[in-house]
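Page 37, top half.
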Amino acid sequence: MLFPYCFSIVDEDIAMNKLMVTVLTTLMLSASLSVLAGDSMNGMNMKSSADAQAVHGVGVIKSMDVKAGKITLYHQAIKELHWPAMNMGFKVANPQLLVGLKVGQHVKFELKAQGANQIISAITLVQ
């Protein structure tokens, strides 16, 4: 009675292969759909490093950390990036850009893409 036992092993292998194909197909489809569905940034254009055009904005300094090279601004809408006016934290290309600036000051700034992030490459007081 070895003969029926051999068929049950083959049937189990076929069933396992079908299950694996189904699982892998489902995972790949799920990953594809999540990419096509978009992200949670609701239309905000986060330019890639390949598109390193400078974008300009105007805002008010809310906080900053010179040592860490970070600043939080309440900026006006930035049309080029489809960003509404909001509070937003940024890294600066060089922490020295923040020396002499103070919370509450009105500034003009330049953003350049660095990967998926926008980095402040220049910042000056609004006169």
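Page 37, bottom half:
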Amino acid sequence: MRSLALTLVFLAVVLVGCSEDQNPLSNNTSGEQPTTTLQKPALPFQGSATGMSTTHQSPTCVWPYTLEQSASGTGDFSHMGHCTATATYCVGWYWTPGVSPLPWSGPVIGTGTIKAANGDEVYFSTTSTYTVPNAMPLMNYSTGTYTITGGTGRFAGATGTGTLTGVQELAQFGTQHVTTFTVNGTIVY
């Protein structure tokens, strides 16, 4: 009988203790439910796209950016598969008439979108420097960084950073150029 009484007392204590919405192992004395926020891991983000770009005088870029470049193409990127990519860049280009412009280099800033086949998008911004080392072949080489600024679908709120390299086969001003860009870094989504 005594063991039955002790069991009932024990059950009463457990039930009273469990009626409060607190973890008995927690140091939380505020009565609020503890919350757990899991941090998403940074995943490798790599890929490249090739397409066409057009360079023209810029109505929207601000000095020292004197040219605007619009680019679009297709490629493959980690976590996205086969994609389309579009971007707009402001290019700093300066040339003094009568002085050979080669080699020349300057700053480039831009924004763009990488769109997966299912419609999910990753938005990015870039900062880089371009170099055109000589006249033949007339090639533009860019190196810099990218920053992922968001997205849609499973990439909503995405972040990330990494390196960006680009190669562009230059043609006459105002015409289309074959352009390839490659990214190597991280994405968090």
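Margin note: Confidence is low (pLDDT under 50) at residues 1-26.
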